[in-house]
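Posting here for the record, re: adenosine-5'-triphosphate.
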Amino acid sequence: MSKAGILQIAGILVLLLALLVLPNYLKYHHQDFMIFLFINILVVVSYRLMTLTGEWSLIHIVMMGVGAYTSALLSKNLGFPVWVSMPMAGVSAGLMAALLCFPLFRMTQFYFLIGSFAVGEAIRLAWIFFVYPFGGSSGVSSIPPPELLGIDFMEPIPYFYLVLSVVTICLVILYRVENSRFGLTLHAVHWKASLAESVGVNTWKYRSLAFIVASLFVGIAGALKIHYLGNVTPHQFGVGTMVFVLIWVIVGGYNTFFGPILGAIVLSVLDESLRDLEEFRPAIYGVILIAAIMFMPKGLESVPSGIRQWFSQRKSPG
Amino acid sequence: MSLLEVQNVSKHFGGLTALHNVTFSVKAGEIRGLIGPNGAGKSTMFKNIAGFYKPTQGDILFEGRSIAGLAPHDISSLGIVRTFQETTLFQELTVFENTLVGCHLQAETNIFSAVLGLDKGKQKRAREKSMEVMEFMGLIERRDQLAAELPLGSQRTLAIATALASGPKLLLMDEPFAGMNPEETKQMMNLTQKVNDFGVTIVLVEHDMKAVMGLCEYITVLNFGTLLAEGSPTEIREDARVVSAYLGGGHRH
Ligand SMILES: Nc1ncnc2c1ncn2[C@@H]1O[C@H](COP(=O)(O)OP(=O)(O)OP(=O)(O)O)[C@@H](O)[C@H]1O
Ligand SMILES: [Mg+2]
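Prediction output follows.
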């Protein structure tokens, strides 16, 4: 293994260790914040897998909801242990995505974006309309937490460790997907679908697979979220939330694996520090988005290398 | 038996007839020239064969089997690969990665083996195949360069290398010499011959008559979407109908 590779792994281990001790030094609501931050990281990273094929959807958050409702209903109504209902959340979101491939991937680009929005809203309406089993507009509440060795998962610290473990495993898998043959093919589909087709790539299949895998992971994220909150409503998965995901991804930069993570972290921290300015949030976000698009079209991820370049240019003029 | 048989193929775009009742066949091992003035329907013919268009009428047989209307990726998995008239590459990927994508048919894995690393052997063979193809096409020194940064000649070579990596039996080349200087054209002609010697049947669409006459034993001429003439280079050069079609049409050279 290369030296850089060892350093990278060492860095990640140190980071994980830091994350293991960190919550013990945080206030209660900051512990909450960390839990939602890690869930959001899984949301943006799985979304990025979808965007690798060049298609941006507005249904990602609704797929999170599909996972959330599945896990809520399985655990509350049918008495499944959360350890079973949570993976089932991923499976059901993946299956739902597989069904939706047929109408959705007849479209591309702008039409796909709008189509995905329409289908997502239809699913959300179904949750509101069918009071049994989805609980209508007020959703499902009193969702049980996971149970293991008497640990109290209502408390933020144990739940944070659970989220940290699940999200880390998911990120490792998603990272491997992106850097595998499969990821290369997704890039190929994005950059030149016709050429990919002509060397044998079934582009429809790869667009669909990216959507299914992204939905699977965001479904798990949905389950993680609602077993902590204890309730699930259709409003948690509205297009407003989706817009936040888009902003995180765009501001962070979607050209690398770590860009969206950076975007989610920086903007969530910012958001947290602006808590008192609640009514200005949309305006602030708007300004940030416009500034990001204007001044760093490649996102926050490009800032370090940009600064390095700027310095080296100053040192050696010409 | 012919490798490729085009039988009475017509292609209409609304009211426009791009191809009308065209029939010809290509033997295994040939380098076939497909020529004609601008707008004659050469690229349209390629797109019909490669599955990008479905013929309005007629049939296309490959190794005796009808392929008209199959999807492009199905046709390429049978062994027909086209290159594009406009240089078409994965601009954002390196030369190596371009050829690696070209190996798709042999290297495709399911997502589970990809994540668990169970496809290591397969991916190793794909990398070896890519190296072989880059070596063969003289691109090995440029392997880590981005496709977008290559000079035109190398870009066209890379397009062919990517096609070749997929292991085609029949290669459809759409104007591979366009925009090249005489030196590059000569190199490309040698490469084309080399690919053919390697066992790949080639259909070549090209406006550079010297190149076509030099490479092909047999030439098919299209004009206004119909088959105008077929024959050896000498016969075609002396065919009065071909000469007048080129004088009347928008011949480039
Ligand atoms: N998708 C399309 N829709 C409508 N008309 C088309 C389409 N593709 C091609 N045509 C028309 O069909 C005719 C044949 O076009 P084609 O591109 O096959 O010509 P060509 O022989 O390849 O010409 P060139 O030498 O200029 O590349 C032209 O009149 C063209 O305008
Ligand atoms: Mg053409």
